[in-house]
């Protein structure tokens, strides 16, 4: 039965039947885990995922049931949990920024795309460390979690227009920091 319920109905059901909340975890834990791993590294992803779902479970009675998809809510919680781990994230991105773009091995071992991505990584990491926490959260929710503008607005509790204008300014800022290269060149096809 839980497979046929949307997230909102599942959360509502879990108020009286707490064990049914496990179905929400089963649906979204892998995605939240991937997001956490990309933000903070694999070593913290398990902890962050657990913290997100614990907070979601505890706050499930306050869930806005007009949203059938709980992903934006979960990403909002994940963003707040990540901010609690921000020091580790800053140390990691600072270390990545210091890593040389030169990698051992021959060109034949890698595709041209991979070489380009590896060369961009330190510059991109430096650019990300120069963004405010709020800017970084928004950019990564759209670029990594593939949230729509509306979903990112819901996750961050800001208006959609704010998301649009901030993303525009962020793209310009990151492009400038990378010397004209835009790692987020594909404009999302979101409302």
What does it look like?
By secondary structure, the chain is mostly helical. It is built from 9 helices and no strands. Helix 2 packs across helix 4 (about 70-85). The chain starts with 6 loop residues before the first helix and ends in a 14-residue tail after the last helix.
Architecture blueprint of SSEs:
Elements: H1 7-16, H2 22-40, H3 42-58, H4 71-84, H5 86-98, H6 112-129, H7 133-143, H8 149-156, H9 160-177
Helix pairs in contact: 2-3, 2-4, 3-4, 4-8, 5-6, 8-9
In short:
This protein is mostly helical. The protein contains 9 helices and no strands.
Number of strands: 0
Instruction: Give the number of helices.
Output: 9
List the helices and strands in order. Answer: HHHHHHHHH
Rg is 18 Å
Please state the structural category: mainly alpha
- As a percent range, the share of strand residues is under 5%
- Quaternary arrangement of the chains shown? single chain
How can the largest sheet be summarized?
none
Shape: globular
List segments where confidence is low: pLDDT < 50 over at least 5 consecutive residues: 107-116
Distance between the termini: 32 Å
How much helicity do the residues have?
Answer: 55-70%
Overall average pLDDT: 81
